[in-house]
């Protein structure tokens, strides 16, 4: 198992092919210090999701290494890796059940107080208590009790409760109203504070606040630096 990490991540000459002979990543070098945030940007097909897939070990790299606090991620068990590397996907996963169950997912031992604390921290509490049954309101996987923005806030509360050292986030592109947008920005700040994060960023505000921005192009890093440098 992976011992508790601080969250230093290093990719060295990472190459990956989904199909033999077609490199989706052509030798990526990237390092992130514990607590820092990195925004991955680039055109469609440039390799953003592939990097995320490798970090979570949905696939194993073809060559090169990925280390977390110096441990090669291939040498640790997948459950122990995923308990410290959390992921929030773009197509927010809401399942049929109560709001409470949806937030608790992944932390079944969480108390009601912990659930509310997480929801308050990401500014989801107010809309939840205004639902007919509050935290006990039943939602459906594809139902429309929740707006897109609300679904995102639920997924943030879930991630905050799980409290991983490293957080991977595929930022949603869905258009949401300005008020919710601001809430999400605030919530994101709270969620990312003190964690190492990899964000496939679509919002300019997210890109601006990243410690490092990596621009990918056809499986290579085209340039990197912070917002002022680029
Ligand atoms: P987008 O902005 O569209 O999400 P992306 O930057 O996330 O793009 P990737 O999904 O990482 O891009 O894709 C990188 C390359 O790998 C592309 O050439 C893509 O066609 C290929 N690819 C991605 N997923 C698979 C897969 N499951 N099987 C085969 N090839 C894939
Ligand atoms: Mg993608």
Q: Are any ligands bound, and if so which?
A: adenosine-5'-triphosphate, magnesium ion
Number of spatially distinct domains: 1
Strand share of the residues?
25-35%
Strands, count: 12
Helical content class: 25-40%
CATH homology superfamily: P-loop containing nucleotide triphosphate hydrolases
Q: What does the largest sheet look like?
A: 6 strands, mixed
Low-confidence parts lasting 5 or more residues at pLDDT below 50?
none
CATH topology call: Rossmann fold
Helix tally equals 8
Element-level helix/strand string: EEEHEEHEEHHHEHEHEHEE
Whole-angstrom Rg: 18 Å
How far is it from the N-terminal to the C-terminal residue, by CA? 39 Å
For the record, what CATH class applies?
Alpha Beta
Give the neighbour order of strands across the main sheet: 6-9-10-3-11-12
What tags apply to this protein structure?
single chain, 230 residues, alpha/beta, Rossmann fold, 6-stranded mixed sheet, 4-stranded antiparallel sheet, 8 helices, 31% helix, binds adenosine-5'-triphosphate, binds magnesium ion
What does this structure look like?
By secondary structure, this protein is an alpha/beta fold. It has one domain (9-225): Rossmann fold (3-Layer(aba) Sandwich), CATH 3.40.50.300. The chain has helices at residues 48-55, 78-84, 99-104, 112-121, 125-129, 148-162, 178-192, 204-209, and strands at residues 9-19, 22-32, 37-42, 63-68, 71-72, 85-88, 97-98, 138-139, 166-170, 196-200, 212-217, 220-225. Strands 6-9-10-3-11-12 form a six-stranded mixed β-sheet, with helices on both faces. A four-stranded antiparallel β-sheet has the order 2-1-4-5, with helices on one face. Helix 4 crosses helix 6 (148-162) and helix 6 packs parallel to helix 7. It is globular. The model has no long low-confidence stretch (mean pLDDT 93). The structure holds adenosine-5'-triphosphate and magnesium ion. The site of magnesium ion (MG) has 2 residues, from helix 1. Magnesium ion binds at residues 48-49. This is ABC transporter ATP-binding protein. Residues 9-230 form the ABC transporter domain. It is found in: Cell membrane.
């Amino acid at each position: 198992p992976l011992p508790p990490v601080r969250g230093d991540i290093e990719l060295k000459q990472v190459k990956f092919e989904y199909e033999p002979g077609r490199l989706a990543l052509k030798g990526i070098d990237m390092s992130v210090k514990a607590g820092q945030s990195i925004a991955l940007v680039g055109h469609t097909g440039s390799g953003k999701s592939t990097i995320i897939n490798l970090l979570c070990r949905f696939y194993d790299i073809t060559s090169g290494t990925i280390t977390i606090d110096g441990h090669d991620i291939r040498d640790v068990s997948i459950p122990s890796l995923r308990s410290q590397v959390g992921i929030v996907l773009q197509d927010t996963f809401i399942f049929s059940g109560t709001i409470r169950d949806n937030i608790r997912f992944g932390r079944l031992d969480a108390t009601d107080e912990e659930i509310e604390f997480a929801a308050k921290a990401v500014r989801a509490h107010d809309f939840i208590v205004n639902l007919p049954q509050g935290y006990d309101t039943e939602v459906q996987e594809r139902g429309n009790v929740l707006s897109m923005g609300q679904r995102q806030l639920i997924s943030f509360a879930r991630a905050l409760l799980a409290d991983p050292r490293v957080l991977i986030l595929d930022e949603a592109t869905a258009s949401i109203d300005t008020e919710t947008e601001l809430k999400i920005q605030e919530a994101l700040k709270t969620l990312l504070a003190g964690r190492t994060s990899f964000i496939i960023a679509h919002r300019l505000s997210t890109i601006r606040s990243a410690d490092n921005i990596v621009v990918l192009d056809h499986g290579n890093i085209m340039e990197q630096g912070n917002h002022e440098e680029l």
